[in-house]
TrEMBL record:
Stretches assigned to coiled coil: none
SUPFAM superfamilies: Arabinanase/levansucrase/invertase, Concanavalin A-like lectins/glucanases
Domain Glycosyl hydrolase family 32 C-terminal: 341-536
PANTHER family: BETA-FRUCTOFURANOSIDASE, INSOLUBLE ISOENZYME CWINV1-RELATED
GO terms (BP aspect): carbohydrate metabolic process
Domain annotation Glycosyl hydrolase family 32 N-terminal: ranges: 18-338
Pfam families: Glyco_hydro_32C, Glyco_hydro_32N
This protein's name: Uncharacterized protein
Organism, scientific name: Panicum virgatum
Keywords: Glycoprotein, Glycosidase, Hydrolase
A GO MF label: hydrolase activity, hydrolyzing O-glycosyl compounds
UniProt similarity note: Belongs to the glycosyl hydrolase 32 family.
């Protein structure tokens, strides 16, 4: 195990309970896995530098007993072979019925050509899965002749079809068209490509980091990646290079290996799909957690400050807090929610019940440390009739709508929400808020996270993020918000997790002054906070030396970790 240095949370923007490396560069989540009572997390990692550099990346590896506290186990894959000497890039892990564990990953070979490789756990019964073997017969899939732009990467977790063959999906630029293609194999070594792509999007030549997984039509339980048949739909998720993550729900035929979205409209263009997150989040990757029968999503949350800041602090990149996800009752959208293990970090609590926040009202939530907190609030909307009419042009550009109608711009129903990471003089603040509009004899709920005043620091990106919440606000007469605050990251879940917005913030006041949290309302009518609960969260042990972590791991693992730490 590599030596680890304890860095106090908050120093250089370090988070308290989000996954991040102790030092150096991290980006895409790769191959999260639950195996033999342990959670394993692999990730794109530069063990030598806090920057991406030339992309000669390894797979970092950490393990946990609870998805909250993590021990760094070094690197699982390094760029040491001819088929990956320029970098071990993204991929996935697959657990096989015979007990074997495999990694499928993209290697950049000596000529920087993207090829697909396999590695196997040397000893699957090893609880820490420390050693992985890369067979000399790699690459298992050389780059096909019809791939253009050298874009052929990021294999998904494999699944078994009803014909007994393994399959995985991978992003490929096929003759200039951004495609997701399927490969099949009987032995996990010899693979054949399906003639038709699973999906093709002519508008964008390069998609990456696909994820393809089943969801139950009813209920919140997750499904094993090989599940199919009655009562099952599938989700295809794609990432637009260095941009955003999009997904669509559909029906998958594992005989023809075809996928048909359930929603009508222009679904060929991925940019018309739904968003995993409307903020700053990329390369989402999910896994089936057999321990709690749920599907759990990870995603990379990049820095928004400068390269010189990254060098100064010695590390770059975090992961979103793990989210359980399931299919909403409408059968079209996903619901995401922080995994319940976050509640083990809850400490001091404050509660607000039935408070009415009048027009222009600002109500401080005091009594807890709000630099690392979990806030849940339900806003009751007594009067929707006065809601403003929504101009249809805004449906395709909610971000611009939020920019024009920010938190300080009075509306009819809203803006109302939370002001977080606020300095005492309010010069620094981040707002997460809702507005309600009339639209087509119904109502549309807009959700915004506004970073324009999040920091007085120069050289920091401070965008506005926005998305509509697909919910029946007329029926519910309320809208809920849950926000996780953790020093430099804010994750918000609107409408019970139907719309998510993740943001990075770098306020300067936290170094010397107190941090403040408020509920606010700038709508013409009052809103009622039917319930607000806020918890101060403890600091987790994430990839640093901490004896407390050992208590969370199975007893037989503790001597191994202790020996490695010496």
């Amino acid at each position: 195990m590599n030596s680890k240095q304890h860095l106090h949370h908050g120093r250089h923007g370090r988070t308290a309970y989000h996954f991040q490396p102790a030092k150096n560069w991290m980006n895409d989540p790769n191959g999260p896995l639950y195996h033999n009572g342990m959670y394993h997390f692999f990730y794109q990692y530069n063990p030598h530098d806090p920057l991406f550099g030339a992309g000669k990346l390894s797979w970092g590896h950490s393990a946990s007993g609870d998805l909250v506290n993590w021990a760094f186990l070094g690197t699982a894959l390094d760029p040491t072979s001819t088929f990956d000497v320029r970098g071990c890039w993204s991929g996935s892990t697959t657990a096989m019925p015979d007990g074997r564990l495999a990694i499928l990953y993209t290697g950049r070979d000596a000529d920087e050509v993207q090829v697909q490789n396999v590695a196997f756990a040397r000893n699957p019964s090893d609880l820490l899965l420390l050693e992985w073997d890369k067979p000399s017969f790699n690459p298992i899939i050389p780059q096909p002749a019809d791939v253009t732009g050298n874009n052929f990467r990021d294999p998904t977790t494999a699944w078994l079809g009803r014909d007994g063959l393994w399959r995985f999906a991978i992003a490929a630029e096929v003759d200039g068209v951004g495609s997701t293609v399927i490969y099949r194999s009987a032995d996990f070594v010899s693979w054949e490509r399906n003639a038709l792509p699973l999906h093709a999007s002519p508008g964008i030549p390069c998609w990456e980091c696909p994820d393809f997984f089943p969801v139950a039509e009813q209920g919140t339980e997750g499904l094993d990646t090989s599940a199919n048949g009655a009562g099952v739909r599938h989700v295809l998720k794609l990432s637009k290079a260095a941009d955003e993550d999009y997904y669509v729900v559909g029906r998958y035929d594992d005989e023809a290996d075809t996928f048909v979205p359930v929603e009508d409209g222009e679904q060929a263009d991925v940019r018309n799909w739904r968003r995993i997150d409307h903020g700053h989040l990329f390369a989402a990757k999910s896994f089936f957690d057999a321990r709690r029968k749920r599907r759990v999503l990870w995603a990379w949350v990049d820095e928004m400050d400068s390269r010189s800041d990254d060098v100064a602090k010695g590390w770059t990149g975090i992961q979103s807090f793990p989210r359980a996800l399931w299919l909403d009752t409408d059968g079209k959208q996903l619901v995401q929610w922080p995994v319940e293990e976050i509640e083990t970090l809850r400490r001091k609590q404050v509660t607000l019940l039935g408070a009415v926040v009048g027009s222009g009202g600002l109500h401080e939530i005091a009594g807890i440390e709000t630099l690392q907190a979990d806030v849940e609030v339900v806003f009751e909307i007594p009067n929707l009739k006065e809601a403003e009419q929504l101009d249809p042009k805004w449906l395709q550009d909610p971000q611009k709508l939020c920019a024009e109608k920010g938190a300080a711009v009075q509306g009819a129903v809203g803006p109302f929400g939370l002001t977080v990471m606020a300095s005492g003089d309010m010069r620094e603040q981040t707002t997460i808020f809702f507005r309600v509009f009339k639209h087509d004899d119904a109502y549309k709920v807009l959700m915004c996270t506004d970073l324009t005043r999040s920091s007085t620091k120069e050289g920091v990106q401070k965008p506005i993020y926005a998305g509509f919440v697909d919910m029946d606000v007329e029926k519910d007469k309320s809208v809920s918000l849950r926000t996780l605050i953790d020093h430099s990251v804010i994750e918000s879940f609107g409408g019970g997790g139907r719309t998510c917005i993740t943001a990075r913030v770098y306020p300067e006041h936290v170094a010397t002054g107190r941090n403040h949290l408020y509920v606010f309302n700038n709508g013409l009518d009052a809103v009622k906070v039917s319930k607000l609960e806020a918890w101060e969260l403890a600091t987790a042990s994430v990839n640093v030396e901490d004896d407390g972590l050992l208590a969370l791991l199975p007893p037989m693992v503790v001597p191994i970790l202790s020996d490695d730490a010496e």
